[in-house]
Amino acid sequence: MRKVVVGALLWTCLVPAAFGQAKKPTALDKATLEAYLRHQFLIPANIQFSIEDAKPSEIPSMMLVGVNLTDGAQMKQRVEFYVSSDGRKMIQGKVFDITDSPFSTDLKLLQGDGNPVLGPANAPVNLEIFSDFQCQYCKEAAKTIRANVEKEYPAKVKVVFRDFPLEQIHPWARPAAIAGRCVHKLEAGAFWQYHDWVFEQQANLTVENLKQKTLEFFNGKLDTLQLTQCIDAKATEKDVDRSIATAKALQVASTPTMFVNGRRVVGNAAWPELKRVLDYEVDYAAKHGKPGEACCEVKLPIPGAK
After folding, report:
1. How far apart are the C-alpha atoms of 121 and 158, rounded to whole Å?
2. pLDDT (tens digit, 9 = 90+) per residue, 128-173?
3. CATH superfamily of 104-288
4. What is the pTM of this model?
């Protein structure tokens, strides 16, 4: 199986040995690697490092080292390096298998049901969006998607909503995600009414009034007693936590972040830009099948066989 490595060569120099005895630096030493990366990228002292133990990689003779960066609160990032067995050289990047989709790793993480869906289940293109109900940019992205996708691609694109509330900066985003999942649990179609309403009312919602306003909105539309019980018990909290865990595994760093058949689109993309991506993926799926699918089996006739 052939592999293609994309990245930048980082470690290329040697420290001259004094009297032939000086210890040479190695990227397999965690303290040395941290010092090198701080120097190279001007990483300040408040950014914390957590360097994983080296392990065998898909590239022969190279080890995989994961480097996790955090500021202790909001910012979290993981970077992978492929390090030569002697520790002298390393490559930052991803390994791609040319026999598989370039998005195969992310597509595997995106598997799983139970999320709010809009559009046909067998649509050739999935637009999955990680969103935060209190995020202004998510509100604009939601408007773009709701105004255009279903109208332009009624049979070709399925929208999947995934919660990623940024609790550190948006105090009512997580309660809103839990309430939204409660609505979805009671009636799947009602979720999109909630989705549109929350974003429309974004400026008027608070931690204190979110529940009451949600119940008022659905009064006469849903069983408000069941909805109240679900919200009070945080019965859907695990669903939200699973969505957050998926976002973190995908290293989603901001909202909104979309995945179109695994292709990452970060930020509030204008409709012409998003449409260009969707058009490409619709056309690609028509020619090659949906990513991750077993396309087909061709059987040739064998002479004399029945």
Report:
1. 7
2. 999 999 999 999 999 999 999 999 999 999 999 999 999 989 999 9
3. Glutaredoxin (3.40.30.10)
4. 0.79
